Amino acid sequence: MSASSAPPVPQALPRRIARLAAMAAAARRRILGLMSGTSLDGLDLALCDVTGHGRATRVQVLAHDTRPYDAAQRARLRALASQEQVALAELTLAHAWLAELHAQAVLEALARWGVDVAGVDCIASHGQTVYHAPRGPHGLRATLQIGDGDRLARRTGLPVVSDFRQKELAAGGEGAPLAPYADALLFGDTAIPRLLLNLGGIANFTWLSAGRGTARVRYGDTGPANTLLDRVVRERLPRHAEGYDRDGALAARGRTHAGLLAALKAHAYFRQPCPKSTGPETFGADYLRAAQAAAGADHVSPADLLATLVRLTAETVADTLRAELPVTPGAEVLASGGGTHNRTLLAALRETLEPVLPAARWRDLAEFGVPGDAKEAVLFAVLANETLAGEGFDVPLGGDPRAVGAGAGVSFGKLSFPD
Ligand SMILES: Nc1ncnc2c1ncn2[C@@H]1O[C@H](COP(=O)(O)OP(=O)(O)OP(=O)(O)O)[C@@H](O)[C@H]1O
Ligand SMILES: [Mg+2]
Fold it and tell me: Whose CA is nearest to atom 29 of ligand 1?
């Protein structure tokens, strides 16, 4: 049946559909974005007022916070995340457990902010990636996030959009990073070329050349950022109170091990063209151990290891950009994610980016109304907004086939009703 011969929409819609229709038709939606990244540090929450959709999308961040996981919660997630083998019973239980935890975090955050649940339209919940396999055997592309959307909806009383990555994979994409879709909507209208660089467990970038045309977005995961730094602190400095290298102070005291850096950079991922995605499955303990063995660097001090890994991130970000972009003077760089607090990493990046983005202007994302630590959570609020009110992503990823987002023309996310 063609669309033109479809029956007219009935006047009296069923209650749940009416709620959705009202949300879609409203001038403004209040969406709570939730992101739990690969670093397993905690749940980021960002309450956003979103108006419009597509390229008319505007976001105002009303409140944001991170609800840290405690040691036991982190250990439970770590035992599941990025492992080739886990107990199926535990995976199943954790899917529900994490949703309960996130629901509690939502209700507590709203109470803290003085926001009534009834004042929120919906939740955009990324969940926790437990395994990301964008290039699995026989061409199969797959990823899995836990933290059941139905349970989250049930516990909070709010509709939930979740499972954002599945459709992009089904469409032949990588399922990650998804940030470029929202980055292009929020930051794409620019007279000055922009690099958005997120330094989470993994580093990803979105490049937006000036203007509003097509064929002007480049994006991808460049490789590891905090995931290996955190691992070294955890495993080599188990008594270190914070569990990560605060401000990059330890790395600042170390020296780069040139042989180890070369062995780490020899991984084939760094030579794959964008768009591409990766995770701690690839850049985990085995990768680090193999590179240390290959370089005869088994006994490198923790500080030198951290210094070398900081260098790895800075160089692989720059190498990726050099392969993907023309040398562009005077671009803007908008960095986000926990890695922006690592001063040693930022200093290294300023140096390695200079040849490809000479005289770049580093700007604080907060100038754009999006706090850097909340950015990923905000982006998922935008993806949910597009799912509810948009027509599918009209993101200018067209033109050069390497720049085509597989998700162009679709929206992302599954919908859960609370009742
Ligand atoms: N003050 C700081 N100094 C150095 N590193 C920090 C600091 N604060 C946070 N970090 C690092 O940032 C990490 C968390 O970053 P973030 O939450 O952006 O990553 P993520 O959870 O992996 O998210 P995503 O996968 O969405 O990028 C921490 O694990 C830590 O390594
Ligand atoms: Mg995080």
Answer: 39
